[in-house]
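quick one: pyridoxal-5'-phosphate bound model?
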Amino acid sequence: MTTYTTDQLMEKDKAHFTHPWTIFDVYKHEGALPIERAEGCYIYDTEGNRYLDAVGGLWCNNIGTGREEMAEAIAEQVRMMSYSSPFVDLTNVPATLLAEKIASIAPGDLNHVFYSCGGSTAIDTAFRLIHYFQNCRGKHDKKHIISRKSSYHGSTYAAMSIGGKAGDHPPEFDYLSDTIHHISAPKFYGDTSGKSEAEFLDELVAELEAKIVELGGEDHVAAFFAEPILGAGGVIIPPQGYHQRTWEICQKYDVLYVSDEVVTAFGRLGHWFASEDEFGIIPDIITSAKGLTSGYQPLGATIYSDKIHDVISEEGHGRCFAHGFTYSGHPVACAAALKNIEIMERENLHGNVSELAPYFQERLESLSDLPIVGDVRGRGFMWCVEFVANKTSFELFPEELDIGKRISNHADAKGLIVRPIVHLNVMSPPLNLKREDIDFIVDTLRESIELTVAELNNEGYTL
Ligand SMILES: Cc1ncc(COP(=O)(O)O)c(C=O)c1O
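yep, here:
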């Protein structure tokens, strides 16, 4: 129970808690809304106001919050053993069983799991594993990494350098740049060149191949990092066939394909993993986190192939994989993940996503009659609405207008949380959402957009 008023909490927060992605100037004045309680797809602030959390926390609340069964599984593991070292020659039962389970649901020969504490560390682990693998093979010059503009891969030094969202690279931070290269994002909406989507796809594939060749070809390029659907970069769904063709290019040049499934795995698109089931490819490495525990515990997993494992663990070299975290394979986090997976299977949450995704799409697309709704895109339970000032020229509103935030502020006031990212509103709700929840989300978004349009017209726009 909170013993402080909301205002007191906000003052304490402002004084001591440095938030991720804080714009200091705004935060100093507005602070952050204290959330106290959560149940299912709802969160409650310290004033008792209820919101439907259509963001699912931060793309992670896949089974819904507040499940008694999860609390029990976590408590039981804490009572049994709250911690045990994973280093060198010790292991623990939940970590072993979870690795086996992940290997059984992962595509192809991805049978090996390295645990970390979240998505960024899963990416960092992939990055270091790639170096290790290439050096073990004697390919010491094979170090270049290619990723895409508008991608997000996390917030550690390496992960942020691999990410390509321009807004995430402010000049006050430094980045690795000598071996990391960004090619175009596969976003067709907003292209004004007049080319077809098929021509756009040909260009993207040619660009990847040209970049590999420019960097010295197969002797120099180590890996390609790609989210199946770019999430934080704006729910960008590549043209049909993109994954298959870029994967083939990677195979042609002996470039490892890293599929960053931190968001898309564990049911978000109606499958355990999207790489194979949705896009038909078997990557060399998959990174995952978020839905792996549905946010009940922090956990990341870097899942990699027999092909890589056979090389790095080859006998007779006396090699040590000198990488790891105190909390790699944390027993409580792994117990939470096992229970989370059991719940997903028992309740057929993937089936719910597959069944309701077309309805979600149809309802969201009904917003297209509004004058500032430019595009509605997504798959499964991963959606976004893109707002434009002009639907024909695709002209965007000035960034300082913060159109996504304006709309989401209205939605907040009506009891709906959507995630504003500049000119977008993004949604990734719990996978057990019902039809009536989808209706509430879309109806509330419509009202919030209409209110914003009225405001903008009062401010001199003619929409
Ligand atoms: C695709 C992707 N990769 C990696 C990350 C980083 O994960 P984490 O915030 O758990 O470190 C995120 C976070 O949103 C993500 O969306």
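The first strand starts at residue 35 and ends at 39.
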